[in-house]
Amino acid sequence: MKLFIGLDVSSTKLDTCFLTSDSTILFETSVSNDLLGASEIKEQTLDYIKQFTFTRVVIGMEATGKYSSLLALFFHEDEELRSHGVETTVENPRNIQRFMKVFTEDKNDRLDAFHIADYLRLERFNTSPIKEEQYVALQSLTRARFELIQDMTRTKQHFLNILYMKCNVLQHELKSEKGSTSAFSSTIIELFTTEYTLDDIGYMPLEQLVDLLQEKGRGRFRQPENLAKRLQKAVRNSYRLGKTVQNSIDSVLASQVRIIRTYKEEIKALDKAIVAILDVIPESKSLLSIPGVGPVYTAGILAEVGQIDRFATQAKLAKYAGLYWPKNQSGNFEKESTPLSKQGNRYLRYYLIEATNSVKRHLPEYSEYYQKKFQEVPKHQHKRALALTARKFVRLVDKQLRDHQLYTPPRSVIERS
Question: Model pTM?
């Protein structure tokens, strides 16, 4: 006989159902979502283990973010429960909801706990995303970094929108001067957000503007004269605004620049903390040995994956990340084009794709694969090719973590070089 314990988790309480493999409800209760409530469930579980001979005991709950993460870690890390082989799993809420709709349209916390236990009873649940403590610590840092990156990206877009109001031709001219600089370079930001007016830049003697660019850019511009000409062209061809509006725009631009710089400083601080934790995780060396995969990408992947043994195959790892394409087949019909599923772990997907984008610049095997996929379709070429290349990269990540070895290039690459 087996025991399945379903927990319906909210911010304040835990509705619990103890269900056996023959569908017998042993006990139902509601306790507080805190250490005392979780300890009650633990003691009740241990009591039933003493009373019955269970071949398997599983504690399961839906993923409800911060409400379920501490609870799952409590059960997973408890030495007494682990000594009896008690498993803890956190399931995708969508799977539970689909399962519940098959049997009833009613919904309350007691029923939810029963249906979670009943779902577990079928033993079709996926790999639990619960990880050891060092991975949880790493995850808090890498996820915080992810959120900062997203916030900074939104701030940068707002900056570009406001910059367009000030000098609407600037971004076009900078793009046409490919590889020269961007609107976020310190030189451009200083020119367009400090004491210089548009007329100062637009009608400054060319030689003086070239010298200014070289001074601000510390001589890094290869063709400063061409850049100076494009900047002046952008200024002269842009709309002019009244002084009141121009002053307000300058204030907003200066504010956005300060915010972006703050984000960059905070991201650097997180990167430093990430490296410190990464040093105590042995598996990190396997991923760090892959050209293009630095400490941040390694940490982001390990934080979400945890122990690779939690995933039976590389396909399950890819599915967990949402890097898979669901089949659509009925009878003799099978849809040729299916969209990428994005129901997986968005943090893992982000770090895998970012790492892939870096790896393809270092490893010819991945660069060639990316180019091949890029040329297969006329639309959404980059996103599609990068996602497919990331799926290929998952296989490498899986192999490196399972083998606990440093990266060695394929024989074909060695022979070519």
Answer: 0.77
